[in-house]
Design goal:
Elements (H helix, E strand, L loop, with lengths): L4 H4 L7 H6 L7 E5 L5 H8 L3 E6 L2 H14 L4 E5 L11 E7 L10 H10 L1 E12 L19 H5 L4 E11 L5 E10 L3
Parallel strand pairs: 1-2, 1-4, 2-3, 4-5
Antiparallel strand pairs: 5-7, 6-7
């Protein structure tokens, strides 16, 4: 599809890590966790994935559902879902959770990640990008949750780490902070 739906609807482009992951991950079933207004979900649907997009914000989901209806998209569904519940009901080839974990209830993050892992098919992928708070780079934003050095990679022991880094990055609002970025493949 040659039409860029994100720019058509005034949305930011898909997260750069989602774009990079799509060069490796073959289209299949995908879950966009914390989809907001759907920038990643729309991109994934245009790459041939069958996408489920979830977010706890009913207004964001309604906006995305309007786009789906206007465009007649059959490979994208959007639904209100509180990620903190950690009770996914389907399995996926690819789960993207970019810039989402830091808005969750801190006590629920481990359960959310375990639920993501349990609902990823063998050979499937998880993509996570999350803010960090370290001594070298204290997080300048007051997120409910941030990762410590090495914490995310430890949660994925037993998975093949395709990409892992803890680099400085910039938020949409220009704030600079350290992010843990992981693309991992489920081995068993």
């Amino acid at each position: 599809m040659s039409v860029d739906l994100n720019s058509r609807y005034g949305l930011n482009p898909a997260h750069s890590e989602v774009v990079v992951a799509c060069k490796l991950v073959k289209p299949g079933s995908a879950l966009d966790m914390g989809c907001s207004n759907g920038r990643n979900a729309l991109y994934l649907s245009q790459q041939g994935f069958n996408v489920t997009a979830v977010d706890s914000n009913p207004n964001a989901i309604a906006m995305l559902q309007d786009i789906i209806k206007q465009e007649g998209l059959t490979n994208l569904q959007a639904q209100v879902y509180d990620i903190n519940n950690a009770n996914l009901s389907a399995d996926y080839d690819f789960i993207a959770c970019t810039v989402t974990l830091m808005f969750l209830q801190p006590a629920r993050v481990n359960a959310v990640i375990k639920d993501m892992q349990a609902h990823t098919v063998v050979g499937g992928y998880n993509l996570i990008v999350c803010a960090m708070h370290t001594a070298e780079h204290p997080c300048p934003m007051n997120f409910p949750f941030t990762l410590d050095t090495g914490e995310l990679s430890q949660m994925y022991s037993g998975w093949e780490l395709i990409k892992y880094n803890e680099d400085l990055g910039t938020m949409h609002n220009g704030a600079q902070l350290q992010f843990a970025t992981l693309l991992a493949r489920k081995l068993a």
